[in-house]
């Protein structure tokens, strides 16, 4: 029986594509609307691919941030943008992130979990200051205790590494076999959670395919924000009876 739940942040608790989209249009005004989803997926790919280099000190954070938007545009056949324009994109993107809000269904879900005393936590990849700023903007500490928040840069580990999930078990006092992890990335969230023997809910609202060669190892898949609240209520109903 599931007794605790841990969430990813980016594109799980809020719509990360909207601030990204707003920033893209300010640096590439004629960007094709039909390419936006694919660009966002490439951007997430390069973020996940390159952030380990930041953790090891091989790359500077600013270099990684410049490269991910530059290469994402090139991947889709657009002209490469300068480092200066890439820095401008990052500044706009960060400003847009200052206005992110929880999806209504996420808020309902968190309210339900808190009202029923379900233990909650967060594991998120990324720079410590950057991710914590999002957590504050989303007011997530209203539902989740600060000591139940893990940000990868502060640990030396990152999803999908098993160690970050084991660290969460120790810090949060959760048991792997009774904890559910909820995230949008198959590679980071689902593979990572299952490597630690956690239960895993793939919040696949971007309708991504399972990576080639991978098995459908998740326990639950949801494809729309509207499915989140009833699904979580159903999972934890036995606990609240």
UniProtKB/TrEMBL annotation:
InterPro entries the UniProt entry points to: HAD-like_hydrolase (IPR051400), HAD-like_sf (IPR036412), HAD-SF_hydro_IA (IPR006439), HAD_sf (IPR023214)
Cofactor field: Mg(2+)
One Pfam family recorded for the sequence: Hydrolase
Keyword Cell membrane: no
Swiss-Prot/TrEMBL keywords: Hydrolase, Magnesium, Metal-binding
Keyword Cell membrane carried by entry: no
Record protein name field: HAD family hydrolase
Organism the protein comes from: Enterococcus diestrammenae
